[in-house]
Amino acid sequence: MIQVNNLVKRYGELIALDHFSLEVQDGEIFGLLGPNGSGKTTAIHCMLSLLTYDKGDISLFGKPMSPRSFDLKKRIGVVPQEVAVFNELTVQENIDYFCSLYVSEKAERKKLVEEALQFVELTDYRKFLPRKLSGGLLRRLNIACGIAHRPELIFLDEPTVAVDPQSRNRILEGIRELNRQGATVIYTSHYMEEVEQLCTRIMIMDKGRELATGTKEELKAMIRSGEKLTLEVPELAEEQLEEIRKLPGILHVNFDGEHLVARGEGEGSALMAVLDLLRQNRIPVGRVFSEPPTLNDVFLEITGKELRD
Amino acid sequence: MKVFNSCIRIMKRRKASFLVYLIIFLVLVVLMTTFSVENYSTDFSAQKPEFTLINRDGESPLINGFREYLEGYGTEFPLPDEEQALQDAVFFQASNYIAVIPEGFTASLFGENPVPLQKTTFPDSAKGYYLDSLVNQYWNQIRMIHTAEPELPEDQLIQKTAESLAVTAKAELFSENETPPVPVYYQLYCQMQGYILIVLVLLGISTVLMVFHRPYIRLRNMCSPMPPEKVSAQTILYGIAISVLAWLLLTVFGLILWGHTLSGTDLRQILLLAANSLTFTITSAGIAVLASCFLHSPNIQNAAANFLSLGLCFLGGVFVPLELFGEGMIRVARFTPTYWYTFAVGEICSLTGFSAGELGPVWQALGIQLGFAAALFCVTMAVQRHRNSVEEGFGQTRTEYEA
């Protein structure tokens, strides 16, 4: 569906994309994950031929993409990062306008607009002007404008920024539904939970480069870090801490006076071993938390910094 | 035509502010037209300067006749016969002319050494010169009639003098093939029309272009399979439609308001005035398109509409007759399209024929206005190109379309 080879994009001295390559298969929900400024949006703009680039090839649907590839553009839907709607047109008029850029036949368009309204659950707001909508509803309108023409390939650039959790869940469910209906989705975000929850394959990016690509399981398998154990412990002597560090399958241990945080290694769990050791030393244990490794851990281990700076 | 239809729809949503502007400005234009007529009037009416007559020679028929004669041309401003009061009156120009009839003036009038009349006036005062010439004329005439008929009694002498001075020469002006003048009200309306045209065209075009210039709207349009030229063509079509609509509206309004005064006016002059305002509409569209590149919000848009329209119209002589401008001011005004618009209005209204020579300045003014429009459109394209080259497009990036 999408093939990007060795893409290089410079803004003066800054290299926004550094030999960036990507391959997306038909029917995937492909996530581009990276911190702000990592090159996700630039990559999308290059793929859409909105930006010139210095080197590389891009092909969509097996054909090279150019600004005048109108036959390809007809099959693509774009949901930009910012809410891009006309404040002067109603919800329905907005969807109708953007749909009309793709579909000229009036009766067909009417049907598509109606479907899009139902899809984003904005039928009750069809006569509303965008300024009367809440942030979440606006985001849904933004999505409706991008998908009303039923595209085969949808680019969603951080569609859930500044959206409340309820609306976010509805948006994510909508994206899954679009994928079930046959659309291939390219989804960018710096929210790792979203990407983890939604995407079938994920690329982690930083500084315009691909760091790792794969399913979430494959990505997590690439790193040494395993589960993260957090135990409420009232006190702990340095010798006891040293004993925990020496336990097999433990990578790091940290104690802040209240919480003992231990990072396991690989897929196994060191929870029982830690609990046994604390019991032997007659140290009371409060609440216990166990978290599997996240994409943030993957990013942290690869780059040495947190995904959310 | 979806883009065009959406432009119209956006305009309809903003029609309230458009109509408010239209009504306020039309009322303003009608008021200004009515009150400015005086400045443009070519009718003549005689002024009555103020004079003071101090008689130290005692009352006599000759002096009374002189006073009556002066009252026919001026208004007497009585003053006490005190030196200080007379000096103050001259200094503060309370009276334009003070004539003091000295003692023995009447007795010596027809003798060999007449006592001269004492006259005081403000230096270089036109009214003073005017009254002085009347006074000289009167006494010279009296002396002349007395010389011719020395036996004539005083009352008859005064009567004959008054009759001879009342005779005026009759002058008639004939000119062949003269076009009746365009009524001053319609001329003024046409002139003020320039102001409201700029405002309406600027608001009409920038309201929509501002929306289409928003970065993410541009992004969405460029991602679509509709070629950008097609989007531009439809927005241009909208610009033409709204400009022509504004021009039509104002032209028809002018004809409704002042049409009854145009019965004797040559149709060609009316058509030329319409052509001039249409040309200016095109120039206004150029201003609007360029201004839209820098407008981002309705507040800035309203401020810009007022600033540009008022500034250009004051400079261009829409509100103040060009004749009242100094040479330096006119030199600056020539660099504004409004100057050439008002210049063309003046030229068309003063046309006495339609020969190539007479129409030359009109065509020149229309051509210059079109030149301004072409220059404005070129500058707009250059601004757009520059903006793209400094990567100020959506997401701070440069699009390939405009690269």
Features:
heterodimer; A: 309 residues; alpha/beta; Alpha-Beta Plaits; six-stranded mixed beta sheet; four-stranded antiparallel beta sheet; B: 403 residues; mainly alpha; abc type-2 transporter like fold; four-stranded mixed beta sheet; 4 strands
Structural notes for this entry:
The complex is a heterodimer of chains A (309) and B (403). By secondary structure, chain A is α/β, with parallel strands linked by helices. Chain A has 2 domains: 2-220, Rossmann fold, CATH 3.40.50; 224-292, YebC, transcriptional regulation domain (Alpha-Beta Plaits). In chain A, 34% of the residues lie in helices and 28% in strands. Chain A is elongated and about 75 Å long. Chain A starts with a strand and ends in a 6-residue tail after the last helix. Chain B has 403 residues and is mainly alpha-helical. Chain B has 2 domains: 2-42 and 183-396, no CATH class; 50-166, abc type-2 transporter like fold, CATH 3.40.1710. Chain B has helices at residues 2-13, 15-40, 61-71, 83-91, 126-148, 154-166, 184-212, 215-223, 228-258, 267-292, 298-316, 327-333, 337-349, 356-389; strands at 50-55, 75-76, 97-101, 118-121. In chain B, strands 2-1-3-4 form a 4-stranded mixed β-sheet, with helices on one face. In chain B, α3 links the parallel β1 and β2. Chains A and B meet through α1, α2 and α3 of A and α1 and α8 of B.
Stretches of chain A where pLDDT falls below 50 for ≥5 residues?
none
Shape of chain B: elongated
Q: What is the N-to-C succession of helices and strands of chain B?
A: HHEHEHEEHHHHHHHHHH
- Quaternary structure type: heterodimer
Fraction in beta strands of chain A:
25-35%
Number of H/I helices of chain A: 11
Straight-line distance between termini of chain A? 33 Å
Mean pLDDT of chain A: 87
* CATH architecture designation of the largest domain in chain A: 3-Layer(aba) Sandwich
What is the mean pLDDT of chain B? 84
* Helix-strand makeup class of chain A: alpha/beta
What strand order characterises the main sheet of chain A? Answer: 6-7-8-3-9-10
User: What is the CATH topology descriptor of the largest domain in chain A?
Assistant: Rossmann fold
Which structural class do the helices and strands of chain B define? mainly alpha
Report how far apart the termini of chain B are. Answer: 27 Å
The total of helices of chain B stands at 14
How many domains would you count in the coordinates of chain B?
2
